[in-house]
Amino acid sequence: MKFGGTSVGSPERIRSVAGLITKDDGDIVVLSAMSGTTNQLLEIADYMNKGNAVGAAETLERLRGKYAGVVKELFPDNDEWTAKANSDIKESIDAITSEISSYNGLQSEKNIVARGELMSTSLMLNYLLSCGVNAKMLPSLDYMTVNASGEPDSKEISAKLSSLLSEIGAAKVYITQGFICRDPEGNITNLQRGGSDYSASLVGAATGADEIQIWTDIDGMHNNDPRFVENTSPVRELHFEEAAELAYFGAKILHPTCILPAKLSNIPVRLLNTMEPLAEGTMIHNASPDHKIKAVAAKDNITAIKIKSSRMLLAYGFLSRVFEVFERYKTSIDMIVTSEVGVSVTIDNEQYLPQILAELKTLGTITVDRDMAIICVVGNLEWKNKGFEAAVVNALKDIPVRMISYGGSNYNISLLVRKEDKVKALSLLSEYLFNK
What we know:
Layout: E1 2-3, H1 11-21, E2 27-31, H2 37-49, H3 53-74, H4 79-101, H5 106-113, H6 115-130, E3 135-138, H7 154-168, E4 173-177, E5 180-182, E6 188-190, H8 195-207, E7 212-216, E8 237-239, H9 240-248, H10 259-264, E9 269-273, E10 282-285, E11 293-308, H11 318-328, E12 336-338, E13 342-347, H12 353-360, E14 365-379, H13 388-395, E15 403-406, E16 412-418, H14 422-433
Parallel strand pairs: 1-2, 1-7, 2-4, 3-4, 7-9, 8-10
Antiparallel strand pairs: 5-6, 9-10, 11-13, 11-14, 12-13, 14-16, 15-16
């Protein structure tokens, strides 16, 4: 069971989650930092990166005050557990203070940011123990490891976690940290922002869990973006590939990397709502998908690049040279379409755009369109299923479409539109595909 920052963002929410995680025996609970904490910790590191120790200290003092208030509210009439919780929080605050005094760049930043998860899990553990629950800590820094490439070492994680569980013995509930881990040298690092989903999937795969539950503040993955479109509804079932496409192309409820360990281990993932725990949510699994369109998502800040060259006509090796340019600058491509004399691609990272364009100009004539959005339509879209492509295109007949990508996946049609047309496109697709 994984709970995000909003789910444990206040004493009230911590109490609510405590009720959810103690209904069964032996569950492993992965917690994110309390909402807002990671941003404050990153702010402390940012002040230090800019040489402003005073700004870092002032931000830390605000964080200290926040957690003092949380402890006071969480243990209002229990001096013993108030003292224990305050002691654990002080340990983290003191560790951050030490990092500030001997700051050494990126490693200190990682050490500081890791304290968010360490504080949230200590609060939850102390609260459960104060309620008489047999709860035990599984320190993620004792088992969650990545290799030299920064990828999780699944075999080592499984071996260390199995040993740790045997060592600490049976419990009603086990508490562990999401996001944070160690590198091959034993230094603290992390699975990148949003990585608590990844942690949960890795723990589930390592322990052979029956189910991985991702608890957030929305009742499952919706068939469109509720921030922009009215009358969206949860999708009850998704294939892993469908969920991965939606997560990558903008459905913020799930981290894209979360899918793979669960998929490979054939463990279903259920998305649930902490605020409405009885809601059905969304089940993600490997079962054959329904023959229908499931959902729509959108990805912003897209740049389209068209390379036109008469040299491409009947020439082998042209695409290879194009892709090598993006590889040199470690810039991934989202969409690609080709013709006899040209190729269009999209990217979502402009960090090296000037250098990329300079090299592409040696291959052909370049056209760039900025401020675009990818609209992703997901479902069982195998080419033998008639009519789905036509339905998508017909829904957007009044909106200019810069690119269409279909056939690279059985689960996705991607369309590139202008940023200003995104919300209208999402609304039209909902009306045409789901609300008729």
